[in-house]
Structures are given as structure tokens and as C-alpha cells.
Amino acid sequence: MKYSVFRPQYHSYNPKRRFQESKLPETNITFREFSHTINLCSLIMRPYRGKIQRYELAGYAAIVFGLLLIIILGIATSGSESGNWGSMVLYILLYFIFVPIVHKVSKCFQCKYLRQAHFVLAVVCRSENNRYYLSRGVEVRPGYLGRWLEFSVLDPEIRKGGPAGIVRALRARHAAHTLEVQRNVEADHQRYMEGVNRNLEAKAIEIKLEMAKINNGGKELTPEEKEKII
Fold first, then answer.
1. Would you say the pTM of this structure is higher than 0.90?
2. Which pLDDT band holds residue 220 (cuts at 50, 70, 90)?
3. Pick from 53, 61, 194, 218: CA 20 to 30 A from residue 84's CA?
4. Distance, CA of 138 to CA of 159 (rounded, Å)
5. Comparing 34-48, 114-128, 156-170, which segment has the lowest mean pLDDT?
């Protein structure tokens, strides 16, 4: 269920049909509860994803307005007696400078709300899972930066364990994910330190070579002498 581009809500074409064709009815989830969750998330996300949407539309509107202005100026220039095409080229250059600036400013305003949107949607999904969905073997997940809403039906083996078994499976999955992230962070740190050590060793060798060159009266060292120092 993706967040709409033009309307401040999570929207899907023919949601009732998509609900009936999914596995949600097999878990005793009703369409009423499904719609309630979507409407609740849309309402709570309006101050976040809704503002992001307004910034995006304002940026696109400014770009389209600039393009229309360039077209109007081009028509006016071509119809004039003097035909000053130098001004038209200047307008086009200003437009191509104006577009990246507008895009960048729009993204800067969105940045703060993107992180907040993801966090708030995660909290709402957690609340809905505890209230209704997990006990029926369904997990509501937030999409990246709140861009979509996902209803995931858990494996039948996990659902057989009941609410307690579902909670244990989710905790085990979270623990495994945390361990994997920790291992990746440690591996990245180790690679970074290896690179730092290599740089320090290279600098130390350069300093030794410079000192040997100075002791040699400023003369270049022979390859044999450099190998001895290294």
C-alpha cells in the first residue's frame, strides 16, 4: 500500500479486491480492520509525508512555471522585429541553473520529515500489531521512509505457536538481524583500520627515505639502498 503522489494518504487501486486476493482473509483479518489501519496511518502521517508531498509538488510547480516562462519568452523573442536571441540563450541558462537549486532546496526541506515519517509509522505499526494483527499471525511493517505500508502474513509454522510463539519468532529474528548488523559494523571498522595502518606505514617509509636522502648529502638513493631501508 503506497503513499499517494497527489493525495495525503496511503492509496491502492481497488483495495477491497487486493484484500480479498491476498492471504489476509485466511487469518481472520476483516476488511474493516484493514481499512481502519490504512486510514489511521494516513491520518497520522499527514503532518510528515503530507508536508513532503507539498514540498515536492511546490518544487515541480516552480520547475513547470519556469519552463512555461521560457516558452513564452521564446515565442515573444521569435516574433519580435529585432530577434534578440542572445537574451533567449541567457533565459535558458538561467532556467538550467534555477532547476537544480529548486530541487536541492526542496530535498533539504524534506530531509527532516523523511526521518520523522519513518519513525512515526514504525510506532503506529507496532501499536497496530500489538492491538490486533500479531495475535492473528500478521505483521504490519513500515516501508522505507514511510513510503509504503506492508501487511505480511507470517509462516504457518510460526502461527501454530500462537501469540507466544509469534513473539518468540519475532524476537529471534530481531536478535539475528542485530547480530548481523554488529558483525557488518565490526568488519567495516576493521577494513577502515587496515587502510589507516597501510597509510601510516607508507608515510613512515617515505619519512625514512627522506631522512636517508638527507644523510646522503641530498643525493638520490639507489634502488638497492631503498630496498634496505624498506
1. no
2. confident
3. 61
4. 9
5. 156-170
- Tell me which H or E stretch contains 54: helix 49-79
Strands 10-11 and 2-3: antiparallel
Give the helix/strand (H/E) hosting 111: helix 85-128
Give the list of residues 6+ apart from residue 34 with CB closer than 8 angstroms, or none.
15, 19, 24, 151
Query: Which cell goes with 170?
Result: 519475532
The Cβ of residue 25 has, within 10 Å, a number of other Cβ atoms equal to 13
> Domain boundaries in the chain?
2-153
- Give me the DSSP letters along 186-216: HHHHHHHHHHHHHHHHHHHHHHHHHHHHHHT
Copy the grid coordinates of residue 157: 509454522
Q: Which residue has the cell 495525503?
A: 8
